[in-house]
Amino acid sequence: MIPYSQLNGWPQRALFSGKLTSGLALGSLLLAGGLSACSPLKLLKPGQRLLSRVKVEGTQNADTERLQALVQQKPNSTFPLPKVAIYQLGRSFYNQERIQRKLDEDRTHYDGLIKAAGTDSAEVGKLLTKRERHTRRHQLALDKGNSIMRLGEAPVIYDSSLTAVSVTQLAIFLKSKGFFRSSVSATDTVPTERFAPFRIFALKSPFHTDSQRVTVVYRIQEGPAFHYSQLDYDIADTAVARRVLASQAQSLLHVGNQYDEETIGAERNRIEALLKNQGFFDFRQQYITLEADTSFAPTTVRLRTLISRPARGGQHRLYTIRNVNFITDAGLIRFGQRRDTLVRDSVRYLAYRHRFSTKALDQKLQVRPGQPYSLAKTQQTQRQLSGLDMFRFSTVTYRRVRGPEAAADSAQGQLDATVNASPAKKFQETTEFGGTYVARQVGPFGNVRLKVRNVFGGAEVLEFGVRAGFEGQYDLTGLTQSDVQSANLKSQLTTQLGANVNLVLPQFLVPWRANRYLSQYNPRTRFNASYTYVQRPEYTRTNVEGTFDYLWQPSPFAQIVLTPIDVSVIRTASIDTSFRNTLERLRINQGSPLYRSFDNLFIPSFNATYLYNSNDFTQTRSAHYLRLFAELGGLTRGLYQQEPLTSYRNDLRSNRLKVYDFGKLTADYRRYYKLTPSTYFVYRLASGLATALSSTQLTTKNKDGSDAVTETLYLIPYDKSLFAGGSTSVRAWKPRRLGPGSYPTTRTVKNSDGSSTIVRDYNTEQPGEVLLEGNVEYRFPIYSFIKGAVFTDFGNVWTLRNDPRPGATFKLNEFYRQFAVGSGIGFRFDFDFLILRLDVATKVYDPSATGNKWILRNFSLREDQSAFNLGIGYPF
C-alpha cells in the first residue's frame, strides 16, 4: 500500500525506509550490544549468584500459578523493559558518599536556620517542612538508589534460605488442597543455559552455561487427592443447630468434593453470616471448628463441623431490636439545646432542625424495631443511605440493653440501634477549565456544575450544568491541491455550548404506593433535560433531549436503568453550500449516510440498560464487567407521519421533523485478571446491531420542486448508528472514522490546473449498523505513579443491508477478514483522585488498504498511520 497524507493524499515515504531503515537497524544493534555489555554479573560479590530462572515441575492437578506465586524469590522482570539493565545504567553514576554528604549538609544547614529562627513558630514550621522535603529526597536515594535505579530493579541475589521457606510454603499449600501425601523438594545447583548472540563476534558459541546464574527447580510429588466421604455436624446449641442444618442446601461442602481449606474457610464465613443475619449478634467465627479424619478409608476425609457453646456456657443469645434512633445531623453540637424528636413507624428521628423528610429516610431504613438483629440489613441500610448522596458518612451502631431493662430470658437479648448520619453540603459546585491547541488556534473550554441536595426536603438531588468549548479546525471544504501543498489552510474556532438539568428522586415515581420491599433495591427516579449547540465552519446544529428514567440495583454490583420516555429533537440551523455539495457527492458516489445527520429529526424511543461491574474506580480487582443495552424507537410514527417524507437538498433548515422507527442492541463485556498486585491482563469484547424496523419513502428535491427523486429506504437516526475507532475503541483510528468493512472512503481535491484528484479520506465519520470489536491490554507499573500498557485492538463496523459501497456490507463468509487491527503502548499517570492517560497506537492491518493490507511495514507517526489518544481514566 502507498501511504497517503491525511491532508493532501500524496504518496510519502514511510518512516522506516531506505537509509533511515539501515540507520535505525544499526542503532538498534548498537543499543542491544550496549545493554548486553551491562551485565548484572558485575554487581555480584564473591560467592554470590544471580537468580535467573524459577521452575515448578511435577504438577498434574494442583494449581501451578498459585504454587509459583508462593515462591519467595523470583527472577528480575524483563518485560516490557530490561529492568536490571536500567538499574545498572543508573548505578553507573550513583555516588552514595556524595548523597550522604549532601544529606548531612542539608540537615546541618536547616538545623542552623531553625536555631536562628528562635521562637518564631511560623518560620520554624516552614523550615521544618523544607528540611523534611530535602532530607526525604536524599534518604530515598540512599535507600533505593537514584531515580533511574528505582525505575529498574536491583539484581536478585540468590538466597538458599528463601528456597527452604518456599519449599515449606508449597508443602503447606498442597496439603491445604487435599494432597496429604505430597512432597516438595528443590534443586538450586542447576546452572543456567543462555543464548548470547553477541558471543559470535568473539568467535564463540552463542549457547553457553553460566555458573554465576542459578536456576531453581521445585519438584512436586502430588500423590492422590483426598475427597470428602462424609460430612457430619456436632452442634450443642439446638437453636443454632436448627438453623445451620436447615441451610445445608447452601453449604459449600459436598460429599465427593476434594478437600480444600479455602472452601472450608468460606464455609465458616457462610455459617457466621447465616447466624448473624438471624439474630445472633454475639456469634463469632471462632465458635466454628472443622475436624478432618483421614483414617477410615484411603484418600477419603470425614469432615465434622463443630459449633461450641459460648465461653460463659449456656446457649447463644438471640437479639431483637428494641429501639431505633436516627440522628440526621450527627456531628453538630448546640450547647444548651436538645434535639427535637419525630416518630415514624416506631423509629425516632432526632435533629436540632428537621431538614429531611422522615418518609424518604424511612424507606431506606432496613433496621426496624421488633425485628431480629441482621448483619445484612445493617449493611444494606448503610448502602442505602450512602446512595442517597445526602450524607458525608452514615453508621449503624448497637448497644446491648442491660440491667433492669434487659429481658428475663437469658437466651433472649435486646439491642438499641443508633443511626448516625452527618449531612453533606447542601450546595456543591464543580468547575473545570482547560484549553486545546489545534489548527494553530488556542481553544479554551470550561464546565461548571452545581449540585443542590435535598432541594425539596425529600432527599432529592438537583444538578445544573453549563459547558462551553472552542476548538480550532481547518476548513477543508473546497480546498485545492495547491492550497494543501502550500499549507494555505484556513483555521477557525468551532463553538460548542451546552446546558443540562438533572433531578433525582430517592424512590420510584409511580401512581400507586410502592411496597417497602422495593426499597432494598435502592430505587430512584431521574428527570433529565439537555441542550447542545454546535457551530462549525460547515454547519450549525442543535440537539434538545429529555429523558425519564427508573433506576434500581438488584445487587451491590448490578444496576438496571429503564427509560420509558426518551425524546430528542435535532435541527440543523444552517449548513455551508460547499459542505452540502460534499455531502451530496458522498451520498451519490459512495452511498454514505452522513447527510442524514443534518436532517431535522424527532426521535422518540424507550430503552433499558443492564450494568454489572464488580470492579472499583481504580480497576484494581480481578473482576467482570457487562453492559447490555436495548432500545426501540419511532414505533408510533404511523399515527402522525404520512409518507413519502420530503427532504430539501438546498434548504435543510426548512425540512420538517422526520421520525424513523428503529431497534438497537449493544453488548459490552470486560474481564480483568489481576496477575500481581500491580500488573493486570484485561480484555474486552463488544458488539452491536442497529436497524430500521420498516422502510421509509423519502422524496429528495430542491426547494423549487425540481429534480425530485423518491426512494424506499431503511433509515435510522444518524445518532443511533454504531461507530468504531477512538480512545476507547480501536485506538489506531480516529474516533468514529473506522469502516465500513473494507471499503476505502475517498474525497476529491481540486488541482491548480482545474483537474481533480481522488485521495483517501481519513476524516469522514463512518456510521454502521453492525459492530464487532475487541481489545487486549497488559498493564504494568513503570515508576512511582507512572504506569504503562501494551495493547492490541481489533474491530470494524458494517452496514446490514445491501450497500452500493463494495465491502461495506456484513457477510458471514467475509467479515472475519475485514477486522482492522491496531497496536500500541500507553502511559497512565495515576494521581489517586485522577488518572490521566496517553495512548499511542499504530495501524497493523487495514482492511480498506489497497495492495498489502499489513501496513505496519509503513510505520510512521503521520495521522493516517498512527493516532495519539488523550483521556481521563482507563479506556475500559
TrEMBL record:
Residues 592-876 form the Bacterial surface antigen (D15) domain. Keywords: Cell outer membrane, Membrane, Signal, Transmembrane. It comes from the Bacteria. The keyword Signal applies. InterPro entries: Bac_surfAg_D15, D15-like. It is found in: Membrane. GO terms for cellular component: outer membrane. Pfam families: Omp85. This is Bacterial surface antigen (D15) domain-containing protein. The lineage of its organism: Bacteria, Pseudomonadati, Bacteroidota, Cytophagia, Cytophagales.
